[in-house]
Amino acid sequence: METNKEKSFNNKLKFELRSKNRYNKDDPIIINFTLYNLTNEGLRVLARYTPLENLQGDIFHVICEGKKIQYGGIMVKRGPPTEKEYMYIEPGRSISREINISSAYKLPTSQECVVHFIGDKINYISGSGDLSPKNAGEYQTADITGNSVSFRIEEK
Fold it and tell me: What's the predicted TM-score (pTM) here?
């Protein structure tokens, strides 16, 4: 019999980034992040280090005109995860969050900016039957894949 610790959640989650094709220089650069549950069971995922918690660290790889843009936002120091940091995704469903990346990355006027979520894993995956989070070692980590987005930033 398979236990939660033995379950493999790899390839059970995927993410998608969406953005407009063009932004004005002084307008917010909004990226939509969606995390899909590809399984037939509910999953609880830890929002930490993902766009689901907004920008709490350097979680995107941002390149404009071939140059890496440095993260300039807040960095959060953390203790053990709490119950409210977990988000439930129903079987076959998704959860989304819009992120203003211009609040943490100083983006120049450019012909092309490319943004990719650098978290290739989601931590502390648990099935819907699990109760409150326990020790990190009791939960799975899932490899996830997804796309990049590209857009241009123009003067007004």
Answer: 0.86
